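Q: Focus on the shape:
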Amino acid sequence: MFKSLLSKAAPFLGSLIGGPAGAAVGSLVGKVLTPGVKNPTEEQLTTALEKATPEQLILLKKEEAKLKERIAQIEHENNALLVGDTQDARKMNLESKDKTPAFLAYCILLGFFGMIIGLFIDDKIPEGSSKVIFSLAGTITTLLVCVFNFYFGRTSFTKDK
């Protein structure tokens, strides 16, 4: 009941209830709606939300906006760190003239294509080896993606990978 009421009053906060941030959101709502109560129960929060004044609802919306802004700021800082890390790695690679990253990239590329060709030439995988071969295929494919990301860049740092 509390989650549905909160979702109507502050949809973003309501969406966070029940997840990892649920306790923090409950505490935030408690500070706004039951300022004199330490660690309010869900029943107390539900009652307070049902009886909330327009001023309290406005304050709840303001807190919701602050939280959204803070989350956006953290995401922006995280993306800036990821971009900086990638730029530093590429810069180091260019300045050091070290051949090791290129050598490893070629090994991974040859390993990937060698595995593909090997599977086409002999498509009979021994009974006990299939799990190992599929695990190896996944590992080499993941490493190949990392190589492409390093040399050609990523278009985004989203969670939709």
Remarks:
- The chain has a mean pLDDT of 83.
- The chain has two domains: 2-73, 99-161.
- The two ends are 35 Å apart (CA to CA).
